[in-house]
UniProtKB/TrEMBL annotation:
InterPro entries: YcjX-like (IPR007413). Keywords: Hydrolase. PANTHER family: ATPASE, ATPASE-RELATED. One of its GO terms (molecular function) is hydrolase activity. It comes from Photobacterium ganghwense. This is Nucleoside triphosphate hydrolase.
């Protein structure tokens, strides 16, 4: 009877163990790698972690511990937690290297159930937490599913203005002689695609622009060098009409571009949504609002447009593209303004208000059926310490830290606008921050952070009840 009882208990335990897939995304350099490294680190120190007062499971002592366990999806690369920690623990500390593809890490969280059937049946339960990291740029590709090659080419031709047109110069020049109706020339298409890809890279690196399509061209992951990411939009509409382009046969240059585009839609974009996105339960979207404030209005507005596009993936109205593909599961989305330690603490409410403004418009005009949303500001891994300095007889807030080259600095980076910045802000703002290296960390202590506990509470609090 005893043996039977204990077997039954094991069986019940197994069937009651729960599982949550938390997706972490954001445009490149938004702070995904730092966030996941810190999140894992905070949870691994959970039993002795004094830095998580806003996370009720820790505050009230019912989260007992966390450990790393092997991931189940063996085809997804592992998130480099150890590598990140060893960079942070070197002397002087360094930032973890960012990941460029989808990656994953699994933790088992042991807790004392607080309510429901688990509380009656078990003293302790396990929540398996899969944290999945993927580039936000991949979400910019969703609209491609609703556009054929001709419509996409038209749209790309329309955005070739201002800074983008300048950055596209070499690609546009290389394609000048391209005859879309001539027999397919793979080597030529490869060459012009390389210039197109360089243009997309330049948009990000030189232009501070985020809206780049197709997203995989700049973050190809395992697709690097594959023909599926060797095509470009046919933007030279003086050479060919839309109808000619639409009707061009398979064996022409345009035919090859069209078939690669279709392959990309089906096997890259759709596959990501079906294999990964469809399985996420919770989502955090990290946004670096401060870098575009440093760079200027074009970069800021472009980030806003990229965020609008990115949010389309969470619109699950009945006729939405994703609902037609599968039924998405995400029920909570958290937007987090990262690197809050770049500005002094009294600016944090402004940072949240700015982020709310950035996402609210899109949020309110769309149908996000059954999804809860919230915004906060955080610093995954603190690099500065706040304090005050004496300025003309007054105590003013300031930040102290070491620059990436090791120089000790104390500064006030400026005011964060509460609302979307006006022309006046851009003309008069002296907003300027420096990149600091992370604060010195100890291997037996959790990493210093700001409001990671608030993020944990929002994302996991109810799952640990
Ligand atoms: P990813 O491309 O989204 O994975 O971005 P990373 O996590 O690699 O972050 C990009 C850079 O942002 C890092 O190298 C740091 O310089 C900076 N960063 C990220 N998180 C923080 C933070 O919490 N505080 C500060 N000061 N800088 C951060």
């Amino acid at each position: 009877m005893n043996r039977f009882g204990s077997e039954l208990n094991k069986l019940v335990n197994r069937s009651l163990d729960r599982h949550v897939r938390l997706a972490v995304t954001g445009l490149s350099r938004a702070g995904k790698t730092a966030f996941i490294t810190s999140l894992v680190n905070q949870l691994m120190h959970v039993s002795t972690n004094p830095r998580l007062p806003l996370f009720s499971a820790v505050r009230e002592g019912y989260l007992l511990g966390a450990k790393r366990v092997p991931q189940v999806d063996m085809h997804v690369p592992k998130f480099g937690y150890e590598e990140g920690m060893s960079a942070l623990l070197t002397s002087p500390p360094a930032w973890p290297s960012p990941t460029r593809d989808v990656s994953q890490i699994r933790l088992a969280l042991r807790y004392k159930p607080q309510k429901g059937p688990l509380k009656l049946l078990q003293d302790t339960a396990t929540l398996y937490l899969d944290i999945v990291d993927y580039p936000g740029e991949w979400l910019l590709d969703l609209p491609l599913l609703d556009m054929d090659f001709v419509a996409w080419s038209r749209q790309q031709a329309q955005v070739l203005k201002g800074k983008r047109e300048e950055l596209a110069h070499d690609w546009l020049a290389e394609g000048e002689q391209f005859d879309p109706l001539a027999p397919a020339d793979e080597a030529l298409i490869e060459r012009i695609s390389a210039r197109f890809t360089e243009y997309l890279f330049k948009c990000k690196a030189e232009g501070g622009l985020h809206w780049v399509q197709p997203g995989r061209f700049v973050l190809p992951g395992e697709l690097a060098g594959a023909p599926v990411i060797q095509f470009f939009p046919m933007v030279w509409f003086d050479k060919v009409t839309e109808q000619q382009l639409a009707e061009a046969g398979e064996d022409t240059n345009a035919g090859m571009l069209k078939s690669r585009y279709r392959y990309y839609q089906q096997h890259v974009v759709k596959a990501f949504y079906k294999e990964h996105f469809a399985k996420f339960d919770r989502q955090i979207i990290l946004v670096d609002c401060l870098q575009p404030l440093n760079t200027g209005p074009e970069s800021f507005n472009d980030m806003r447009q990229a965020l609008d596009q990115l949010m389309q993936s969470f619109r699950y109205g009945r006729s939405s593209l994703l609902k037609r593909l599968f039924s998405p599961r995400i029920d909570k989305v958290l937007f987090a303004a990262t690197k809050a330690d770049h500005v002094t603490p009294e600016q944090h409410p402004n940072l949240v208000s700015l982020l709310q403004q950035l996402v609210n418009e899109a949020w309110q005009t769309a149908s996000f059926e059954g999804i809860q949303m919230d915004c906060l500001s955080l610093s995954s891994i603190q690099a500065t310490e706040p304090g005050f300095v004496d300025y003309q007889g007054r105590q003013v807030p300031a930040l102290r830290g070491h620059t990436l080259s090791g120089e000790a600095k104390t500064l006030f980076p400026g005011d964060v606008p509460r609302r979307l910045p006006s022309d006046e802000f851009w003309q008069s703002s002296e907003f300027d921050f420096l990149n600091f290296r992370p604060l010195v960390a100890q291997s037996d202590e959790p990493l210093p952070h700001i409001r990671m506990d608030k993020a944990l509470e929002y994302l996991l609090g109810d799952k640990l009840q």
